[in-house]
Design a protein that fits this description.
By secondary structure, the protein is an alpha/beta fold. It contains 14 helices and 18 strands. The chain has helices at residues 2-12, 92-104, 117-129, 152-157, 178-187, 201-213, 229-235, 274-286, 294-306, 317-329, 351-362, 366-373, 375-380, 427-432, and strands at residues 22-30, 39-47, 50-56, 66-69, 74-77, 79-84, 107-112, 136-144, 165-166, 169-171, 192-195, 217-221, 239-241, 289-291, 334-335, 398-401, 415-420, 423-426. The strands form two sheets. Strands 6, 7, 8, 9, 10, 11, 12, 13, 14 and 15 form a ten-stranded mixed beta sheet that branches. Strands 1, 2, 3, 4, 5, 16, 17 and 18 form an eight-stranded mixed beta sheet that branches. Helix 10 packs across helix 11 and helix 11 runs antiparallel to helix 12 (366-373). The N and C termini lie far apart (51 Å).
Length: 453
């Protein structure tokens, strides 16, 4: 009986990438994700999960390789959504559908920014092994001051635990043994701690130092209330989320807690604002990346204004655009996070909206947008050594486009094939399974993000 069940499992499981298999993707224009200009008529050689070499057509030793002719196509690295929520609360069928949409839409890596890590860890394992069609997942545990843990999302993501006591959602204060708290996070498999809310500056600094000492990244809200944006950056946070929140730095005081939803006083934000310029210089000096999530604010502004029951956004779309423009002009690294969920019927992933925001609203050149969505996303996730650019030794994560995304960023949707860890997923296979009723014009759905609760 055991042998029979094992045989069934082997039949049902998709084949892993053959470590010895060689595939030559030949003749494409290559945009490598580093910001370098595109290179025409290039070959890319893949062995198993990894890129072996790149070079002009016909220059690589590809004896025995399966050849894929990509003449007229463009190759870009796999996209990264650096701000998703996968299990608040857990819903396995729904999240698998969303992950599948992401993968077939060119996304090969996501950052789960504080969820119930029990199902997320299993999803991450299944995605990495190719058992489900999904991007790879890097996930965070959350830490915040005790006052935050009345938030209903905590109960949804730590069911079975008293709020604030789950290893992946810990309430901390000056009495907390941070060495033990961070060790508990490591035990969950989390790649990072998300410093969320209601923490004073000295505790943010102590937490960041202990996390880094134990080899854990620190992903933070841009303002952790009452810690100011400058406090998180001075502490050495690896990345900060929501460029809007950085606007609180321009105010003379800071709100005492996350629950105070007073919006940014945008009268203090002027073009090339000197206070913000100082903050962005500090980010450059520290190497801090900003996960802007700008499209969230732009797309929700009008619906929020029209709904008298809706909580106000902390920033208008205009302010978010201005802050992102200033950050980009000063060279601050930006990644493409979303923090919202499109309707199930939309055939494209949310991160495309962030690319459009950066290109169309902010005015970033398409080459810079692609770098933000690829290499900078990998940096945000602590994965730059493994992916994010098309270079020898890195994982074979890339997207085959029929049209040039530098001519029009909308061509990011001309996907023919997505390759993740050396395994190819044809876009046509995804489209063939979509009901005719699915379309991309439905409005954004409500979600449990930091801007809706």
């Amino acid at each position: 009986m055991k042998r029979f069940l094992l045989a069934l499992l082997l039949i049902a499981a998709p084949a892993a990438a053959d470590d010895a298999a060689l595939t030559l993707y030949s003749g494409a224009t290559l945009i490598d994700g580093t910001g370098a200009p595109p290179r025409a008529d290039q070959d890319l050689l893949v062995k198993g999960e990894r890129i072996v070499a790149t070079g002009p057509r016909g220059s690589l030793d590809a004896a025995g390789a399966t050849r894929v002719d990509l003449t007229g196509r463009t190759l870009i690295p796999g996209l990264v959504d650096s701000h998703v929520h996968l299990a608040t609360p857990p819903d396995r069928p729904k999240v698998e559908a969303l992950l599948r949409r992401n993968l077939f839409g060119g996304v090969t890596l996501v950052r789960s920014m504080a969820d119930d890590v029990r199902p997320v860890a299993e999803l991450a394992r299944a995605a990495e092994q190719g058992e489900i069609p999904a991007p790879d997942i890097r996930y965070a545990a959350l830490m915040a001051g005790p006052g935050f843990f009345a938030d209903p999302r905590v109960a949804a993501a730590s069911r079975g635990w008293k709020p604030g006591t789950a290893p992946w959602m810990q309430a901390i204060d000056d009495a907390t043994d941070l060495k033990t708290a961070v060790a508990l996070v490591r035990g969950t498999g989390a790649a990072a701690i998300k410093a969320y809310a209601n923490l004073p500056p000295h505790l943010v600094a102590a937490l960041t130092a202990e996390a880094h000492r134990q080899g854990v990244m620190l992903w933070a809200h841009s303002a952790i209330f009452p810690a100011r944006p400058a406090d998180g950056i001075a502490a050495g946070a690896d990345s900060v989320s929501h460029i809007c929140y950085l606007g609180y730095q321009a105010e003379p005081g800071i709100h005492p807690s996350y629950e105070d939803r007073t919006p940014v006083d945008e009268r203090r934000l002027t073009p090339d604002d000197p206070v913000m310029a100082g903050l962005f210089r500090a980010m450059l000096a520290k190497g801090t990346l900003v996960d802007a999530t700008g499209s969230l604010f732009v797309r929700e502004e009008a619906p929020r204004r029209a709904d008298p029951k809706a909580k106000p956004l902390r920033c208008t779309g205009k302010a978010v655009i201005a802050l992102t423009r200033q950050a980009h002009a000063m060279g601050v690294p930006i990644s493409t996070g979303t923090d919202f969920t499109l309707p199930a019927g939309d055939p494209w992933p949310e991160v495309h909206e962030e690319l459009f925001f950066l290109a169309r609203d902010v005015g970033m050149p398409p080459l810079a947008v692609i770098r933000a969505a690829t290499l900078m996303g990998a940096v945000a996730a602590g994965q730059a050594a493994e992916r994010g650019s098309l270079e020898p030794g890195k994982l074979a994560d890339f997207v085959v486009l029929a049209k040039d995304p530098l001519a029009d960023i909308a061509n990011i949707r001309s996907i023919e094939t997505v390759v993740k860890r050396g395994r190819a997923y044809a876009r046509a296979d995804y489209m063939a399974e979509m009901p005719p009723s699915m379309n991309s014009s439905a409005p954004v759905t409500k979600r449990a993000s930091s801007e809706t609760r």
